[in-house]
Amino acid sequence: AEMSLTNVVLALSFLAMIITGLCIIAVFGTDTVRQGLASTPLGKHMLGSLQSDWLKAMMLMLMSPLFILYLGLSVVTQASRKYLSCTLNLSDEERKSVLTVRASRYLKTVMAWNWTSVLMKVLWLGIAFFLLAVGVARVTTLFLSWLNDQLSDVPLAATTGIFYLVGIFMFLNPV
User: What pTM did the predictor assign?
Assistant: First the structure.
């Protein structure tokens, strides 16, 4: 129960950070946030990291279903703006587009990515996730089974010490 509570707290903390960032962008706008970040050395480094193909690959893996949902909502929003008189007035150029202006801008940005590099990194990230999530779990189970078999004839004090050291190592191991 303690590990599941830890995972819930960690997930909610991460979600709270993302929501806070989205609220800051929604209130101040992307241009203001970008200018504020560019005025500090750490912010310049963060903005440079945002252009990394590795980050694009992670975002593609995690956010592509939400981005597709966003594009669908953009189509519905644009259609309601075109055909309902109680919504935003559109210029002739905006009426020709299927997407809203902001969604069109985001889609153009995504389409300008170096897709070969980004998709190769998606594959590498998928392999790394599989190795860490599945491979390490299997290897750990096999190692502990082997250790249990090896320690069957060892005295209790030595077995306790070895299990203590293995437990500490596994706790401190970041993988």
Answer: 0.63
